[in-house]
Every structure is written in C-alpha cells, then in structure tokens.
Design goal:
globular; seven-stranded mixed sheet; 11 strands
Amino acid sequence: IVLGGKAAERKISTATQAKIFAAAERLGYQPNMAARRLRAEIEKTARPVRLVIYPYVNDHLKESEALTSGANCHAAIICNASYADLQFLEDTQLPIPVVLYNRVCNGYCSVNVDDLKMGALAARAFADQGCRTAAVLTSSPVFEGMENRMHGFRLEGEHHGLTILANRYCENSIRGGYEAVSHRLRHEWKQQLPDAVFCGSSAIAHGALRAFCEAGYIGEKLPRLIAVGNGPEEMDAFSIPSLSVVYLPMEDMARECIQLVLGQLDGRIATAESRLLPIEYVPRESCGPLTEDAAQ
C-alpha cells in the first residue's frame, strides 16, 4: 500500500511510511513494473477477474505451490522468469493455463518483442548521431532476450562502423548504474570517454546520468545515452536530460497476456500461441533521432 503510493488514502502515518521506505531501500526493493501493468489491464476488462500476485525468487519458480498445485488460481501469467525457471516450465506439465510475459518457452503462450531489433535501433541511433565508440551497461542476463538485445546492438553497431567496448555488468537499479559509471570515470574512462552508452534498463540509465552530472559531464560533454525503456515513462521524460529509450510496450504486452489467458479459459485458444509486439525508438535530449531512412 505504501510503496504503491496509497498511504494517504489509507491514512497511514508519515512515521510508518518512513520506516517502510527505509526498509525497502535497505532490502534493495524494486517495484515489479510488469505486475503493475497486468493489474491495470485487468481492471479495464469487462469480465470480473481477481488478480493475485505471488512473488517468487528467480531460479525458484518450481517452489511456487500456487502454480504447481493449481489450487488457488485458474490461470497464471508468469513475469521475469530466469533460464532455470524456463527450464522448469519446459519440463513440467502444469495443471492450469499459463502465459509468459516477455519470455519464450516451448508449449506455452507468450507475448514478446523483437529483442534483436531493440538493440539494433539503439546502435543505429548512435551511429546516426556521429558516435564512433559505445559502451554497454547492463545487469547480468537472466533470459535470452537480454542477450539478444546486446547481440543486436553489437551487430548493428559494427555494421555502421561503431566500436563497441566490452559489456560491463552492474546491478539493475539506479544505484547500480550510478556506481558503475562512477567507477569507470575513475578508471578506464578517466582518459577517454566513450561517445555513447547503451543501458539495459531505464533505472541503470538514471543512475548513469547522475554520475556523469556529478563528474561535470553535462550538455555537449555528456556521452549520448539510450536505455531499454522499461521503467515509468514519466521518469524518462522528465529527467535532466530527458532519456531517449527503445520503448518496451509494457501496457500493450500486459493487455495481450490477459487476452491470451481469457482465450485459454474460454477454450478459444487450444494450442500455444506467441504474439510479437512492435517497438519504437523514442528520441529525447540524451540522444537525437534516427535518420529518416532508419526510422522507416
């Protein structure tokens, strides 16, 4: 309730709110944006559906009794599954219909985007802005799509003469991006900054922007920066500078997941169906637009 922004509505004291926010920061809590989008889309459906969110730890999906027993729900939408979780799903016949959000697994309905293209669009935007060298900041990949984004970035970048520096892994958070850039500014970037930085998430990018700003890299001194836009759109649009992103259409993906679930429950969908949604590059102040030919 407090982390969801409804503390005032429930008349929760500011002292209690402060304790909860402090505990969340200490534990490294990150809001599950996919779950929030799913809840919002379910609330729009005319059909009464009760959404229950069961958190789980990556690599431990098999321990979710609600999923394996089917006793507490009629269907499931699984978000953020890791390699181990996907292997569990492939090896297991679950008692309820399942849809995968932004993941692919044999035998299951899923909703995804073209991850190779996400990386390629970022590389093309950097090349169109005249960049010659680019760095990558991302968390360790937990599913194939993350690797595909970086692979697409590297392939497209090299095709346009962009020198791609070795991937650098960091925590998938604002703090992770901040600490990663701060460290590199004291070491390998001390003598020569890359012209561009591709971030694996909006959160990493916002931390990176803070670190660059503190070090005096603002305006034209700041490397071009693009992120995978998987955070709150307002945060990206109103940061300084505003953040250019390859937009992950999370609301649309959530809507398609709900439709696939309802289709399976109604019997309209009897075999595994995958849906691939379009993506777009959204230029803002941190990196300019694609050329007209590339945008098409």
